[in-house]
Amino acid sequence: MARVLVLLGPPGSGKTTIGEELGRRGLRWREWEPVILARWGSREAFVARKAEALPQLHDEVGRWVAAGGPAAVIETTGLSDAPFLDMLDRDHECLVVRLDVSRAEARRRVAARAGGRHLTDDPGRNEAVWQAVAAGPGTHRRADLVLATDQRTPADLVEEILAACAPPTQGHPAAGASP
């Protein structure tokens, strides 16, 4: 199984929902956006001090990943995290899962989710991030698995992700079985 499972996608693609379900299934999951908001007070304060804040966050996430245990699940848009993702990919066995979502479904999900949990609840800011991901790193970064999340349940998506994480079978017959 991969040591790090990267959920890559725009706002509203299902990263948090899928990460939570993977956590319930025994993988290590931690939502980092509340940590950012608690530490920096707001998205604006985080962005204003991003040169300091982002390396601190990446260092903390890196230590968490390296701590051992089941595979660590992280979520990202890939916009500000590209160098960090490159480091994870270089230093750990990573499975990158890109979660694709239509613009309309992303808007619907972002509008329906509880406020105060993500870096921004502002529809305009989320739309800008969605556009940036669609135009850039989200579609250009290596993805081991690409899943469209519009028409599938989180449980179905998690099953497919876990199947992709499973070690390949060796094809050996069971003990005592005839070849």
Write the layout of secondary structure elements.
Layout lengths: L3 E5 L6 H10 L3 E2 L3 H8 L2 H6 L1 H17 L5 E5 L5 H10 L2 E7 L2 H10 L10 H13 L1 H4 L4 E4 L5 H12 L14
Helix pairs in contact: 1-9, 6-7
Describe this structure in words.
By secondary structure, the protein is of the alpha/beta class. The protein has a single domain (4-165), classed as Rossmann fold. The chain is 50% helix and 13% strand. It is built from 9 helices and 5 strands. It has a 5-stranded parallel sheet, sandwiched between helices. It is globular and about 50 Å long.
Query: What's the average pLDDT?
Result: 84
For this structure, the CATH topology is Rossmann fold
Shape category = globular
Distance between the termini: 27 Å
Biggest sheet layout: 5 strands, parallel
Task: Tell me briefly what this model is.
With 179 residues, the protein is of the alpha/beta class. It has a single domain, classed as P-loop containing nucleotide triphosphate hydrolases (Rossmann fold, 3-Layer(aba) Sandwich), CATH 3.40.50.300. 50% of the residues lie in helices and 13% in strands.
Name its key features:
179 residues; alpha/beta; Rossmann fold; 5 strands
